[in-house]
Specification:
Helices cover 24% and strands 22% of the residues. By secondary structure, the protein is of the alpha/beta class. The strands form 7 sheets. Strands 10-25-26-27-21-22-11 form a 7-stranded mixed sheet. A hairpin with a 2-residue loop joins strand 23 and strand 24. The chain is elongated, with a radius of gyration of 31 Å. The protein starts with 9 loop residues before the first helix and ends in a 7-residue tail after the last strand.
Length: 572
């Protein structure tokens, strides 16, 4: 049966309307413009899926442009990681650009603003400028430097660029309207001085750097972007975006390519907020620098590299983004939606293995053989996905919770009294008793097995009310399991008063040593790295959850990260 095509989101509807009307000569060009001052997170992925998805769907091109206008915070480390993450997600850009590619053009444009009496050099402090901006209901106060002569503004701006003016002493402001109800029009800053840090690409070539609002729209215009897509907080910036582009057109700047009859437009969608985490780069940087997480790729972090290390796949992440969709209304997405995406992604892919988290020894008193190899399907009901051998013998480990010395009517697993329980992919057994230590803790469970009840044989069709997992004592292996959970203990840490670090979930990481079946022994090596990304395998630990091999694994120690439990444990 054919599946119904998903309805177009509102931006796709805009794009299709533009194409039908022949705008931009039928071209579609988008861009993804990250600032290289940190690692990409799941919020960026929503924008990536939109920018690259629009280009893919309508045979256009999406370019990658780094908004590198602040050398204080930017680094090539972040440039490399951003490219790596985008490629891992499965997207391909048309070209790589940098805002710094346009520093010369932007500087010349600023000169034109000054020459037209539309910009001036201001010597006030940042605090004074902020105070004079006014409020949304009260007009601002003009700077005492607002009516400086054009020649003096040109001389001072050149001195700023020449390094003759101390950092923080002067800025270049657009001369627009200090009474405009949109406060972004109240003489916004166009350029500031930065001499303390070299730029990661241009070194010390520049001493003045453009602000975001004076670089972003112009870069779109220079590149020929048709649809500049961003999040809702930039709605109030859009009039200024248009204002600067209009002035460029007035000054005779030409767009590339030559479809001058149209111009780029900005469109906004709701950003992504997920419960039990934060999307602020500043807060994430605090967590990393203060050692509250193990790094940008800590599996509890919402970064792309953190999600990857936790076991999320590109397909699961893109499916999650597709499911939540795009609107013009801000909201909060439940973390469970993200977990459900990886469960759906892996339920028919991840090989199953038995892993015992709280082991107690089980002795089959009537099993006299030396042991045998049983065959189990990697995924039940899918023999085409392969099988594995499970060693079976007299002594096994089972979960402590699968045995009760005195059971009630609602307990259907192993307990003395004649109840039959099946060992997964093996035999039916009945408990006969147990040993305890001096503290009353059960140390060994005893049972008998039915040799005619082997799974896969005619006698193995007998039904029981419970099936339990097991591993064989001699061949099983110790595995370090890192049980990751939500990073914060409250749904919306950004909305809470006080220090957000006090809201961290103390149980977001629990490390245990488990007993796992020998099928995992093949993972006992450091994973292969391709294009900087460790190639690791996913598994479902039966009745426990989805796990992935951690890149810290060596030939001496296998480490597995829990990606998600089999079901949500946080639902109220």
């Amino acid at each position: 049966m054919e599946t119904e095509e998903k309805a177009l989101n509102f931006i796709e509807q805009i794009v299709e309307k533009d194409l039908q009307e022949g705008k931009n000569s039928g071209r579609i060009q988008t861009r993804f413009p990250p600032e290289p001052n940190g690692y990409l997170h799941i919020g960026h992925v929503k924008a990536i899926c939109m920018d690259f998805g629009i280009a893919d769907r309508y045979n256009g091109v999406c370019n990658l442009r780094f908004d590198d206008t602040n050398p204080v915070k930017e680094d090539t480390e972040y440039v490399d990681s951003i490219q790596q993450d985008i490629a891992w997600l499965g997207f391909r850009w048309g070209n790589v650009y940098y805002a710094s590619d346009y520093f010369e053009k932007l500087y010349d444009l600023a000169i034109d603003f000054i020459k037209h009496g539309m910009a001036y050099v201001d010597e006030q402090t940042p605090e004074q400028i902020a105070e004079q901006k006014g409020t949304p209901t009260e007009p601002g106060v003009a700077s005492p430097y607002r009516d400086r002569p054009i020649d003096e503004n040109l001389r001072l701006f050149q001195a700023m660029q020449n390094g003759e003016i101390e950092e923080g002493k002067m800025v270049l402001r657009a001369k627009i309207d200090m009474a405009n109800p949109n406060m972004h029009f109240r003489d916004p800053i166009m350029y500031r001085i930065i001499t303390s840090h070299p730029h990661h690409r241009t070194g010390h070539r520049w001493n003045v750097y453009p602000m975001y609002d004076f670089a972003h729209g112009q870069s779109d215009y220079f590149e020929g972007v048709t649809h500049s897509i961003c999040t809702l907080e930039f709605v109030v910036h859009r009039p200024l975006y248009d204002y600067f582009i209009d002035r460029m057109i007035d000054f005779g700047y030409q767009r590339n390519p030559n479809d001058k009859e149209d111009r780029t437009h900005q469109f906004e969608f709701n950003r992504l907020n997920i419960t039990y985490t934060v999307m602020s780069k500043r807060k994430m940087l605090q967590l990393v620098k203060e050692g509250l997480v193990a790094g940008w790729d800590d599996p509890r972090m919402p970064t792309v590299c953190g999600l990857r290390r936790r076991g999320y796949t590109p397909g699961a992440i893109r499916s999650f983004i597709n499911t939540i969709g795009y609107t013009k209304v801000e909201g909060m997405i439940d973390y469970t939606w993200l977990e459900n995406a990886i469960r759906e992604d892996q339920k028919e892919k991840a090989p199953r293995v038995c892993a015992i988290f709280d082991p107690v020894k089980l002795v089959l008193t009537n099993y006299d053989g030396e042991g045998e190899n049983l065959v189990a399907e990697n995924i039940d009901g899918h023999p085409e996905l392969g099988t594995r051998e499970m060693r079976f013998a007299k002594e096994l480990y089972i979960e402590r919770g699968d045995f009760q010395e005195e059971s009630d009517k609602n307990f259907f697993r192993l307990s003395p009294g004649g109840r039959e329980v099946r060992l997964k992919n093996a035999y039916i057994i009945q408990a006969t008793g147990c040993d305890k230590d001096a503290a009353g803790n059960i140390t060994t469970v005893y049972a008998t097995y039915d040799p005619d009840s082997k799974s896969g044989t005619e006698g193995g069709n007998r039904k029981t009310k419970a099936t339990i997992n097991w591993v064989e004592c001699q061949t099983c292996m110790d595995v370090e399991a890192r049980l990751y959970d939500r990073l914060f203990a409250v749904e919306n840490p950004s909305a809470e008063e006080g220090d957000f670090r006090d809201l961290l979930n103390p149980d977001s990481l629990r490390i245990v040593t488990i007993k796992a079946e020998a099928a995992l022994r093949k993972e006992m090596h450091r994973p292969e790295v391709i294009n900087g990304i460790a190639q690791v395998n996913h598994y479902q630990f039966l009745k426990q959850g989805y796990f992935v091999v951690d890149p810290d694994t060596t030939g001496d120690k296998l480490i597995m990260n829990r990606t998600a439990s089999l079901k949500d444990n946080w639902q109220k």
